[in-house]
Design brief:
Layout: H1 7-41, H2 45-73, H3 75-94, H4 99-127, H5 134-161, H6 172-184, H7 200-218, H8 223-245, H9 254-258, H10 260-290, H11 295-319, H12 325-344, H13 352-380, H14 386-415, H15 426-453
Main location: membrane
Pfam families: MFS_1
Protein name: MFS transporter
Length: about 450
């Protein structure tokens, strides 16, 4: 690595950023096509609910193993394989004749996206010097947010005019371009210089932990799912002991003890994502069932947050090259907290400008948090472990998403029960919305405090 980025570094940044659109397009755009898909394939509600969940399960199961394989085998190679697997799974889903086949292809898409998420930041860290990493990390984060922003609109348009099957083909042009760039413009390879073997036993225990965690959280408060959650904690303890004793662990658990900055930054990320992930879901229900907005109008208002995040993230990433990243990330936590405080005061008569102002604060705050926090985590890891560090950071994000959404689902179960959604449920839905925001405020206050206390990366 030289003092200044090479031309190859900028080509790699372009490649990774284009790749950052592929996974969100394959994940978020399909959600809009679910009603049409379910109707044609005669899928029941239980199987339909697993269309987004299958991707989440695969992400959690394979994120950490993919990061370790990238450090051993090559980060570009694993990134490229993830893109190919994602595309092949999309082609498989395009020709699906049953909901079970769609779910299998969605699981394969989740595996591919886990390989991409686990390696994208590690690749950027591998080619950009420490004092030049903020901007590329920020641009990469902005591309992910833009992908998540555009995916529902593109998915809805394609479903309306071409049919749900063609939604799975949305990422294909980008796949061809990215693979072309990798072949002709990014000839190098990056991996750990320290010899290591893949810990298959650790990977198996980790997969069992992830499956038990997902099973437990997605079915609360059912006693059987509560038992699965207890089993997940036991398996996590077994995994930690195995990794501490293994000569070639999947992840060195000592990383968390060696760097307080690393471990506390991951904890901050989990809390931030646990608070923010359910917001779009809850606001969509509030706007349509409590305020009577159309789906299109609700979607346009929700774009405020994503657009602000996409605009601010590159700027915040660049600033983290010159100012302490933990202060920028902590300011982002505080701004997000202020946005949620504004949203917590809305009622059945709150006007759109007030909601938009709250979403703007959340978007700006999260944009200021994500890039600098990623910078801190990756800067705190050893050069030989950036693949595992990137995978661990994304695992913290996905786990936070799962925990936050599961707690909100539990509030919905308590306040609304198993009834069909309608405008008559406006009052209990508003109560659920306030409960979810109060829970988010607790998470955000803890995240802000944790961010301030973590110290400075070496």
């Amino acid at each position: 690595m030289t003092e200044n980025p090479s031309a190859e570094s900028w080509w790699l940044l372009l490649t990774v950023c284009l790749g950052a659109f592929i996974a969100p397009l394959g994940m978020a755009s399909v959600n809009v096509a679910i009603p049409a898909l379910a109707s044609e394939l005669a899928a029941n509600a239980v199987l339909v609910s697993w269309i987004p969940t299958a991707v989440l399960v695969a992400n959690i199961v394979f994120m950490l193993p993919a990061g370790k394989l990238a450090d051993i085998w090559g980060r570009k190679r694993v990134f490229q394989l993830g893109i190919c697997l994602n595309a092949l799974a999309g082609l498989g889903a395009f020709g699906a004749s049953s909901i079970e086949w769609v779910l299998l292809m969605r699981f394969c898409q989740g595996l591919g996206s886990a390989m991409m998420f686990a390696t994208s930041m590690a690749l950027l860290i591998s080619v950009f010097p420490a004092h030049k990493r903020g901007l590329p990390l920020g641009v990469n984060a902005a591309c992910i947010y833009l992908g998540l922003t555009l995916a529902p609109a593109l998915g809805g348009w394609v479903t309306q005019w071409l049919g749900w099957r063609y939604v799975f083909l949305l990422p294909m042009p980008l796949v061809v371009i990215v693979l072309g760039f990798i072949h002709w413009r990014v000839p190098g390879e990056w991996h750990s210089q320290e010899p290591s073997r893949f810990d298959w036993r650790g990977a198996l225990v980790f997969a069992l932990w992830a499956l038990a965690l997902v099973t437990g959280l997605t079915g609360l408060p059912d006693p059987r799912h509560l038992l699965a959650l207890v089993v997940s904690f036991v398996l996590l303890g077994v995994f930690i002991v195995m990794q501490a004793r293994s000569p070639s662990p999947l992840i060195r658990v000592q990383m968390f003890r060696e760097s307080r900055v690393f471990s506390m930054s991951l904890g901050t990320a989990s809390l931030m994502y646990a608070s923010s992930y359910p917001l779009g879901f809850m606001l969509s229900l509030y706007l349509q069932y409590v305020r009577g907005y159309s789906a299109a109008d609700a979607g346009q208002l929700l774009l405020v947050q994503a657009f602000a995040m996409a605009c601010v993230a590159p700027f915040a990433g660049k600033l983290s090259d010159y100012f302490p990243a933990r202060w920028l990330a902590s300011a982002g936590c505080g701004c997000t907290l202020a946005g949620f405080y504004v949203l917590s005061g809305i009622d059945a008569q709150t006007e759109a400008p007030v909601i938009g102002a709250g979403l703007l604060l959340v978007g700006v705050g999260f944009g200021f948090f994500s890039s600098p926090n990623n910078h801190v985590v990756m800067h705190s890891a050893r050069a030989s472990e950036v693949g595992v560090a990137a995978a661990t950071l994304n695992l913290a994000r996905v786990t936070g998403n799962l925990v936050g959404m599961s707690l909100v689902n539990l509030l919905i179960y308590w306040n609304l029960g198993n009834v069909a959604m309608s405008a008559e449920l406006a009052a209990p839905l508003l109560m659920t919305f306030h409960g979810a925001l109060q829970l988010a405020l607790v998470f955000l206050a803890a995240a802000t405090l944790l961010s301030l206390l973590r110290g400075r990366a070496r």
